[in-house]
Every structure is written in structure tokens, then in C-alpha cells.
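User: Can you predict the 3D structure for this chain?
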Amino acid sequence: MKFFSKKFSYDKKFNFSKFWEKFGTLIILLSLIIIFSFMSPFFFTVNNLVQILVQSSIFMLIGMGELFAILTAGIDLSVGSILALTGVFTAKLMTLGIPIWISILVGILIGALLGSFNGMLVAFTGLHPFIITLGTMNIYRGITLVITEARPIFDYPFEYNNIFSGNIYGIPNLLIIVAIVALIIYLFTKYTTWARNIYALGGNREAAWLSGTRINLTTILAFTLSGLLSGIAGLSMIARVGAAEPLAGSGYELFAIASTVIGGTSFFGGVGNVPGTLLGAIVIGVINNALNIFNVPTFYQQILTGVIIIAAVYANKVIIRRGE
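Assistant: Here is the predicted structure, written as C-alpha cells:
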């Protein structure tokens, strides 16, 4: 009897660290929605909430890509440049008369190839991903500017925009696409050995190697997925903007990192998940939307996003330490 009472007492002990790990991002999101709803009558409306989700969709895609890079205890600063180059390349193919669906598939493949190039450089040079992707961020952006001569591409088939910017029974196509992609990525992280290897690599590189994980191949896979998802974001951005802009996605690596970190991903690797990243992206979308409603200039939004990243990383570090 004494044994059972002790066990019951232990099971009922509240662990704030684990609670925050599961529900912290959701609590932050709901708190922001409540606060902004009181501050503006225009915020908590169906149209605005849908608009927030649409605006957050790009952040969700590049955030999920960034998730894989950070899970390996690395980082990918090239997501915004891959987004732009993929979008421009796809638009170029369509202007040359290549069918829309073939252009889309090639565009996604380009994103994956750019990501795999990042992964190969990280794997075989031994340099930190920060250095590698800082370099490729500029390389990819430069290629984009060369291809377009620094001018946006407008003259692609209008039917393309309908694929991403149309709607089905009032639900924006872009949200449906993001939901399908997110479900696939979630199932991948939950049930595949490849994903477990990515988590293991970030959690303890030496232990992962000793357990038989192919370090280089796993690194390449993580960055390939980051590039692939950034490529899909690039295809979506064309339809949202109405043109393939060579400077599209500039600074979006900040939003990608913020989405993952706010969503509970650890910069030390091995910790993070898709639902948290999606919620983190929506948090960024909510903040940007609210600041636009309040007519706050864009550069102040950048300052706030930077503050949020620092605060989120610090809070995560403090909570983990207390939990331990």
C-alpha cells in the first residue's frame, strides 16, 4: 500500500518544464490573440484570422525547413535565397513555354538540389553550417539577380497563380497545400528511421555515429529537406506577390529561425517538432499582422522579431535548466 501511494504521488508531480515544452507556444499564441483582440476590434474577425494564416504560410514552410537544419545542431541561413531562386527559376521556365506542372516539379527539385549542395558542403568541408549557408545565401541571391537582371518576372501564365492563390469552398488553396505538406513532414518526423537519425545526430553526434548513423548522409538529407521546403515556399510566394521577385525572401531566414525557436526547437539540436514550428510561424504572423493594424513601421517589426528570438532562446534555456 505504501508503495502505491508513493508511486501515485510521483506521477502527480507537476513538471513545468515538460508542460511548457508541450504547450508553451500555444499559450503564447493564445495570449497574443487575446491581447490584440482587446487592443483592436479589427483583429479578431474571421477574415483577418484567415489572412493571418495565409500570411504565415510562407513562414510555416521555411520554418519546417529550418527545423531540420537546427535539429542537427546546425542552421540554414540560405532559406530566403533558395525561396527567391526557386521562384525565379520556375517563372523563367513558364515564360519559355514549359507546362506549369512540369515547371513546378522542376522548381521543387531545384530547391532540393540547392539544399543538398548546402548539406554536402557542411558534411565534407567540416565547416560550421553557419559559415557554409552564410556563403551560399549570398551565392544563391547573386545567381537570382543575374538570371533576372535584378528585375521581377511578370509574364508567366496567370493560371499558375490560381493554383496557390485560389480557394476551395472558401478555404485558400495555399492553406490546403501547407496543411498537406505539414502532415507529410509530421508523419516523416514521427515514423521514419531517417528522421530519427536526424534527431540522434543533433542530440549526440558521437553516440549517433557509434549506433551506426551515417553522419554525412543524414546531414545532407536534413539540408535537402530544408531546401525542398524553401523551394515550395518560393513557388507559393510567386502567387502571393503576383511576380517572381529577385529580392523575395530577403531576411526571411530570421522568420524561419524565429518560427522554430518560438516553437520549442533547441539550438543545441535534437529537440523540436513540426506542430511547434507551425505554431511559432503563426505567432510571427500574428505579431506582424497586429503591428500592421497598429501602423507600426516595418523596421520596428524587425527589431521586435530579433528581441523575440533572444527572449525565446533564453526562456527555453532557463526552463530546461530548472526542469533538470
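The chain is about 75% helix and 0% strand. The CA atoms of residues 16 and 175 lie 33 Å apart.
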